[in-house]
Design a protein that fits this description.
Length: 272
């Protein structure tokens, strides 16, 4: 009995494949339309990617012929979503954008805007790489948020924008921090000052205040004598900024030690 069931399954699969190949090679668009819809529905129901791939291949052949027809909207959406489900996010972002432009009154247009933006979210690379696609993802989410402020996906859209911005904040901070690590302290101070000014509320703001004051401190104690006092005073002002905003910050003990040393050096300097 088990052998018969397996044999039947093999026969069904073989028949299905042969039917697919026949329809794929024919010029008639209606059988391709019907089979593409069937494969998409089955792929969504079962999670089988081969079904979705077959649906896409059939739809590629008939999409132009259905533009402007009642079925055009449906297959354009399915074509976009099949790419999305297959994690072809470059293809999905492009197809969803085309869908939204072609069918602005569709019931699926909000979903198209959202999934198009989320496709860029998935494309966005790790923070250490070029962030062009991260900026693009934020732009697309902002477009969705602007169009659908009470939309179905608004909560998740805002969360993902926050996550993408954190990624940009981290990259910007580590670029600024790199100046400190290569001992270019003047550039480190400037870079951290720009970071603080440009990214209010950023995740790495406390560290930016800390490395700004630490860079200023190291620069001051390694300066020519005639520059030391002014630079110590600058460093002390940055210490005061850190203590003001982060009185219980993770670097507070080291900041207090730096502050004590600055004050000692200033007293010694004034007594000389």
């Amino acid at each position: 009995m088990m052998k018969k069931i397996l044999l039947l399954g093999v026969c069904i699969v073989a028949f299905s494949c042969s039917e697919y190949q026949k329809v794929l090679k024919k010029n008639d668009i209606k059988p391709k339309y019907d089979m593409a819809i069937k494969f998409y529905d089955e792929g969504m129901e079962t999670g089988k990617k081969t079904k979705l791939k077959k649906s896409i291949r059939l739809l590629e052949q008939i999409l132009p012929q259905y533009r402007g027809k009642p079925q055009g909207e449906r297959i354009a959406y399915i074509f976009s979503d099949a790419h999305y489900q297959l994690e072809d996010y470059f293809g999905a972002s492009y197809q969803f954008e085309r869908f939204a432009k072609a069918y602005p009154k569709s019931q699926k247009v909000e979903e198209a805007y959202y999934k198009g933006a989320k496709s860029y979210y998935y494309i966005s690379p790790v923070y250490s790489k070029d962030q062009i696609d991260t900026y693009k993802a934020i732009e697309k989410f902002q477009q969705y948020i602007s169009l659908y402020p009470d939309g179905q996906y608004i909560g998740e859209a805002n969360e993902l924008v926050g996550e993408l911005r954190d990624k940009l904040d981290r990259k910007a901070f580590e670029i600024a921090q790199q100046y400190y690590h290569i001992e270019d302290y003047k550039s480190a101070i400037a870079a951290m000052a720009n970071y603080i000014e440009d990214r209010p509320g950023a995740k790495y703001m406390e560290d930016a205040y800390f490395y700004k004051l630490k860079a200023a401190y190291v620069l001051s104690i390694n300066s020519y004598k005639h520059l030391v006092e002014d630079r110590l005073e600058d460093a002390q002002s940055y210490v005061e900024d850190y203590e003001k905003y982060y009185p219980e910050g993770s670097h507070i003990e080291e900041v207090k030690e730096i502050s004590e040393d600055i004050n000692k050096r200033l007293i010694t300097k004034n007594q000389a």
